[in-house]
């Protein structure tokens, strides 16, 4: 069962009906080592205390049933891990589960747990959620505590939930974020103002997104985010620099997977000039998104531009970095973003619809996702 690295039963009450949740292995659970699914950290001491999000879940009555597997050091998009094993993609076992929160998405998709926590630095919640056909939310940057979450220093990373339905997403957010307003996240947003971002995506994906907007009864207007491609490149520069600072000392340890060793070596070449340029793009793209949301409530776009590739193709060296082209920019800007599974014509697989909202308006993102979820369910029933 490679979705979960360890299984246990941690809870604050004896409620046999308590909802279950798995925790990504970059988040501390007292008494268990946080290894980030890496041989290089396999001998790490047990955490001395819970991460704040873990304690909040326990206080809210959740039952923690295990540590979720992940792409090593949270630095990859495939989810392939030759040390701890590669989690199964519940939509199609021949395809990658996505990274880095692969185990979290897989565990939810396989119904091993009701929910899971992951982290999203460059799409690492939304990417695997879209690959595995489940819901994943990246909250507004800084809104959810990252106390005792690796890496310690970041300008991109967010802790966020996975679930199979929006009710559970709201329940998890209510537990881990004391400022989250569940009532607001469940309010009527039938008059929502929607913008559809113009992006490059496979025709099958683009058609699915358009069909969902129509089926949900939403009236949308087109939106151009001129600096989106620049934001993708800038996000890569920032994550490379920050991951190199956090884990670069492990290079040459002889304990890293070949892909991580290669990526960390390349990341170490990120220059101060690269970061200065990235920060200029961050400001420009953030302003672009903020301006678009001045007149709109949410932005819609595909989560990924194409379906996940096969494990065989990934192992053969097919590049996957473009998987994050539509999600990584919103790590750079810090806006909340959620992926919702939506049906594809003539395919058993589901694609991801990404919903982006104003900073600190995660509740509206959730409310719009719940509206679309409900209307899609109605059309299936009729």
From TrEMBL:
InterPro entries listed in its UniProt record: Amidase, Amidase_CS, Amidase_dom, AS_sf
Domain Amidase: 21-366
Pfam family, one: Amidase
Gene3D superfamilies in the record: Amidase signature (AS) domain
Record protein name field: Amidase
Species this chain originates from: Paraburkholderia sejongensis
